[in-house]
Design brief:
The protein is mainly alpha-helical. It contains four helices and no strands.
Length: about 130
């Protein structure tokens, strides 16, 4: 139980880390204000979904955040250095959420025996008789 709580906290800590990385963007030149606003919004969405235990949706939103980051780096809106730090946070969150989004296999019930059903007598007549 403690291990699950610790993992959940590490995922949320990583999301907070990502928000901190994105914070203060207006004062720096390695992250444009528009890119920071957009990335922060996506990070918040992932955090909300993870907090509500909708891990599959959080991973899908994380994929979208990844695409945003890649596009912003390519467009020069996020510096390579800042992008690498954000990428590290995304990777950490993905590693934390991945196992949670994969459903545990449901045990398959074993077939039940038909012995003991009916009267247990075989009258030897088969279908026709």
């Amino acid at each position: 139980m403690m291990d699950a709580r610790r993992r959940r906290l590490s995922g949320l800590a990583a999301l907070v880390f990502a928000v901190v990385i994105l914070a203060g963007c207006a004062q720096t030149t390695d992250l444009s204000k528009d890119a920071a606003t957009s990335l922060q919004s996506s990070v918040r969405l992932v955090a909300e979904q993870a907090a509500s235990r909708d891990y599959a949706a959080a991973l899908a939103s994380l994929d979208s955040l990844q695409s945003q980051l890649d596009g912003d780096i390519a467009a020069g809106l996020v510096s390579r250095d800042r992008g690498a730090r954000i990428q590290a946070a995304i990777d950490l969150v993905r590693a934390d959420l991945g196992p949670k989004a994969t459903p545990s296999p449901t045990p398959t019930p074993s077939p039940t025996s038909t012995k003991g059903k009916g009267n247990g007598k075989d009258n030897g007549h088969g279908k026709d008789g």
